[in-house]
Amino acid sequence: LSRKKRGSNNRRRAKLDLARLHLHIANQRKDWQFKLARRLCETYDTICIENLNIKTMQMRWGRKVSDLGHAQFVGILKYMASRLGTLVVETPRFYPSSRTCSVCKHVLDELPLSVREWTCPVCGTVHDRDRNAALNILRVGTSTCTRDGVRPAELGLLSSAVYREASMHR
């Protein structure tokens, strides 16, 4: 498109071809997101997700974060969950899920993004950053589930039965 002369018919055709290609890619992404959301909702009764700050991630990693369509996927997941009777729980945006030890609940002062594995200074447990964050998100998400629905996520403690079950799936 950028090489075509402005106002020409070839530019108009190239513009239509590019728009058609963008629409095709967007439809592929949306189809994949619907299929993934359905599979997740059929597999699990409760799905705990983290409320992410997408704008900050875009500033750090650029436009490729937008191409993932995270907000669109969360919307599709919530829609699919409501249709299939699955519970979707979001943890608070600023909960320190990566910095909290999933064993003893000690919170580190800071943990740079370059550190993918760390050792808890209190209990000595070695944590993979992502797995530890997932366990903490599960702990906070399941602590908010009640018979009346979901109450706002608090930083409550995980019951030992739920923690044992989460630890078994490592």
What does this structure look like?
With 170 residues, the chain is mainly alpha-helical. The N and C termini lie far apart (49 Å). The strands form 3 sheets. Strands 1-2 form a two-stranded parallel sheet. Strand 3 (117-119) and strand 4 form a beta hairpin. It contains 6 helices and 6 strands, in the order αβαααβββαββα.
Order of strands across the main sheet: 1-2
Q: What sequence of helices (H) and strands (E) makes up the elements?
A: HEHHHEEEHEEH
Proportion of beta-strand residues = 5-15%
Which runs of at least 5 residues are low in confidence (pLDDT < 50)? Answer: 154-170
**Average pLDDT:** 82
Overall shape: it is flat
Please sum up the structure shown:
The chain is built from 6 helices and 6 strands; from the N terminus they run αβαααβββαββα. It has helices at residues 9-43, 54-61, 64-67, 70-84, 129-143, 160-168; strands at 46-50, 87-91, 117-119, 126-128, 145-146, 149-150. Strands 1-2 form a two-stranded parallel ribbon.
Write the layout of secondary structure elements.
Layout: H1 9-43, E1 46-50, H2 54-61, H3 64-67, H4 70-84, E2 87-91, E3 117-119, E4 126-128, H5 129-143, E5 145-146, E6 149-150, H6 160-168
Parallel strand pairs: 1-2
Antiparallel strand pairs: 3-4, 5-6
